[in-house]
Amino acid sequence: MPLKPCPFCNSDDDALDIFPEGTVPGLRFVVVCSTCRMRGPGAATAEAAMRSWNARHTPPEVAALVEAAALVEACREAIRFWQNAIYPPMEPIEAALAPFQEADDAEA
Ligand SMILES: [Zn+2]
Fold it and tell me: Ligand 1 centroid vs 76 CA: distance in angstroms?
């Protein structure tokens, strides 16, 4: 069963190990990230530990941040594209913006 990347450091399957934990009568298995040492929930079998790791909850705040970061990166990419597309004629734009810049400076 392929394991989802570590939610803390994004390490992939190669960095994730399944370890037994506890004593033999209470033996449980847990997925551990060898990069950041983050541990998944313990389970009675290795397969159940892997299922728990893959089914972990992503808080809505974290999902929103990941989405926002992707949006910011897309905006940066668009800005880079248009900067490259309009590259030489920046002076007319700066000249057009200069009066507003001076107004901002006067207010400050
Ligand atoms: Zn990790």
Answer: 27
Q: How far is the CA of 90 from the centre of ligand 1 (A)?
A: 44
Rounded CA-CA distance 101/82 in Å is 22
The total of other beta-carbon atoms located within 10 Å of residue 6's CB is 22
Residues whose CB is less than 8 angstroms from the CB of residue 56 and which lie 6 or more positions away in sequence, other chains included: 4, 7, 40, 41
pLDDT in tens, 24-55: 667 899 999 999 999 998 898 999 999 999 98
pTM: 0.50
Instruction: Give the distance (Å) from ligand 1 centre to CA of residue 38.
Output: 5
Rg of the chain in Å (alpha carbons): 25
CA terminus-to-terminus distance, the chain = 60
Cα(88) to ligand 1 centroid in Å equals: 45
